[in-house]
């Protein structure tokens, strides 16, 4: 049985050819040519070696090909263009792609690059002073999908939500609810909005004591936030409150450690951290002149706490208004003796909300800004998540509600989910007509020679690479765009090839190709946290 051919096997053969041809040792890199006529894999190693050996690249490429032992699963190798070496897979190698996708099932596309290392992915982390808005929704989708991608590539992942349950903002929030209970305006720096008056009425009806209002208000808002996230399908392993850092002495401990190391100093009665030494644009205050620690001091303690919990890597997902945190957090790490590369900041842009091309800024329900709860109610969790995730993190999204809910093939989320529903329908038809597909290992997959069959198989075969690349680049949109391309390849196949027909062998082979397509689409959507419906 032929193994699925990939860059590792091809690189091994090329390295041996370089040695046998008397060429310098070099690690070849492979990519998939954009033009299918150029093969399944291509390497530019000959172009890279041409100058060192003083020989035209096409001649170097030909020497490599002349000394190459044809790797198993490769039909032919050719020199192309200025000196590329192109590899074309054999039919049995394509068949093995189908078999692997079916055999591996839910594990198809998963890899081990993370090698069991522990990573903490912190995202959303909105203070419990109000409901989540649409921008928080994008961050929730990104953070959850990045965590899923890391899990799929062998990392041990912990999803974490960090919230402020201490300090000025929480004091203002509690005071605002108290004022609403008395029918008064909120204090200076306080919070307004229908949600404040609703919360005040709820606490009043429940008879919450005056001195417990602040605590009760934040706990209930946190519960509401958790409910919103659950509606999106996001579950956190840990909810971490800032208050615990102060109560445990973690903040004081890290400040003293930074003093001892010589990175913290006193100036005008305050304690500062010399972050500019590590690339920040200015030094930051740890302890104010009045003796109160800053949020920055809590950030220092929080990172130290994560490292102490044994995380090898710490990821923070933040909005573009937090761009300054990139240098700041890496400076915190270095000042406290942590390698800066263990801290990673993922920045995402904001979301503009539209309805049929018209900007939407106000809530129909409350008159305030649209909450994420309202958006989920209107478009559904799947459509919201998919729309957030099909764009690169660094692109501002124009989210048009009318387009997102439209049931048309031009609506990507509808098209991808409908493709899965169509696949499920084909499999139902096969069962109803008594198709006996047997085992995939025994299926006559060599008969899958139609152009659309071959293209669909090749598209399925790229899925593990897509997952690995998307994980490495923290780019969930690559999986979403892949799902769309897979749906398109399946549509072309379905249009030109009858799955359940009179030819038993062809029916069995196409049935397993359909199963492999379904599994790949399910896995891709699952990584994004989007469902794969059987009927639509």
List its salient traits:
4-stranded antiparallel beta sheet; alpha/beta; 5-stranded parallel beta sheet; 15 strands; 536 residues
Could you please describe the fold and organization of this structure?
The chain has 536 residues and is of the alpha/beta class. The protein is 49% helix and 13% strand. The chain has 20 helices and 15 strands. The protein has a 5-stranded parallel beta sheet, with helices on both faces. The longest helix is centred in the last third of the chain and has 25 residues, at 504-528. 42% of the residues are buried.
Strand count, sense and closure of the main sheet?
A: 5 strands, parallel
What is the mean pLDDT? 95
* Global morphology: globular
Distance between the termini: 38 Å
Low-confidence stretches: none
Helix content: 40-55%
What's the β-strand tally? Answer: 15
Counting H and I runs of at least 4 residues, what is the number of helices?
20
> What structural class do helix, strand and pairing data support?
alpha/beta
Based on CA atoms alone, the radius of gyration comes out at 28 Å
Strand order of the largest sheet: 7-6-5-11-12
Q: What fraction strand?
A: 5-15%
């Amino acid at each position: 049985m032929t193994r699925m051919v990939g860059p590792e096997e091809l690189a091994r053969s090329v390295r041996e050819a370089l040695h046998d041809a008397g060429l310098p040792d070099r690690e070849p890199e492979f990519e998939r040519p954009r033009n299918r006529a150029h093969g399944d894999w291509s390497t530019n190693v000959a172009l890279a070696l041409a100058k060192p050996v003083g020989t035209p690249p096409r001649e170097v490429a030909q020497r490599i090909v002349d000394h190459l032992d044809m790797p198993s699963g490769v039909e032919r190798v050719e020199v192309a263009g200025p000196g590329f070496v192109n590899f074309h897979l054999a039919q049995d190698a394509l068949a093995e792609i189908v078999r692997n996708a079916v055999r591996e099932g839910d594990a198809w596309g998963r890899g081990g690059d993370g090698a069991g290392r522990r990573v903490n992915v912190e995202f959303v982390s909105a203070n419990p002073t109000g409901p989540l808005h649409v921008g928080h929704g994008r961050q929730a989708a990104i953070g959850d999908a990045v965590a899923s991608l890391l899990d799929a590539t062998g990392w041990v992942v912990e999803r974490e939500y960090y919230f402020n349950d201490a300090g000025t903002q929480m004091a203002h929030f509690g005071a605002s609810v108290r004022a609403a209970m008395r029918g008064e305006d909120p204090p200076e720096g306080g919070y307004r909005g229908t949600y404040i008056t609703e919360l005040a009425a709820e606490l009043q009806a429940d008879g919450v004591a005056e001195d417990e209002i602040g605590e009760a208000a934040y706990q209930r808002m946190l519960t509401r936030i958790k409910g919103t996230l659950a509606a999106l399908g996001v579950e956190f392993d840990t909810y971490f409150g800032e208050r615990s850092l102060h109560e445990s002495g973690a903040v004081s401990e890290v400040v003293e450690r930074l003093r001892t190391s010589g990175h913290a100093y006193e100036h005008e009665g305050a304690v500062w951290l010399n972050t500019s030494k590590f690339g920040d644009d200015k030094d930051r205050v740890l302890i104010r002149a009045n003796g109160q620690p800053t949020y920055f001091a809590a950030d220092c303690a929080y990172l130290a706490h994560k490292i102490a919990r044994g995380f090898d890597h710490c990821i923070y997902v933040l909005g573009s208004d937090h761009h300054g945190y990139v240098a700041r957090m890496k400076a915190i790490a270095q000042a406290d003796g942590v390698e800066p590369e263990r801290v990673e900041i993922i920045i995402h842009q904001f979301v503009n909300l539209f309805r049929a091309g018209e900007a939407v800024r106000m809530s129909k329900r409350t008159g305030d800004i649209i909450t994420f709860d309202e958006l989920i109610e209107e478009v559904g969790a799947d459509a919201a998540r998919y729309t957030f995730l099909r764009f690169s993190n660094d692109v501002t999204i124009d989210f048009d509600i009318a387009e997102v809910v439209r049931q048309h093939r031009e609506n990507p989320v509808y098209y991808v989910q409908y493709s899965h529903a169509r696949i499920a329908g084909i499999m139902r038809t096969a069962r109803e007509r008594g198709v006996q597909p047997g085992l995939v290992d025994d299926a006559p997959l060599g008969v899958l020679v139609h152009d659309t069959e071959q293209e669909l198989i090749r598209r399925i075969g790229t899925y593990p690479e897509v997952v690995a690349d998307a994980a490495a680049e923290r780019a969930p949109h690559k999986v979403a765009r892949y799902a769309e391309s897979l749906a398109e390849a399946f549509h072309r196949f379905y249009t030109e090839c009858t799955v359940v027909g009179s030819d038993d062998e062809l029916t069995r082979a196409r049935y397993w190709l359909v199963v492999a397509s379904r599994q790949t689409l399910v896995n891709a959507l699952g990584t994004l946290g989007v469902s794969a419906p059987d009927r639509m």
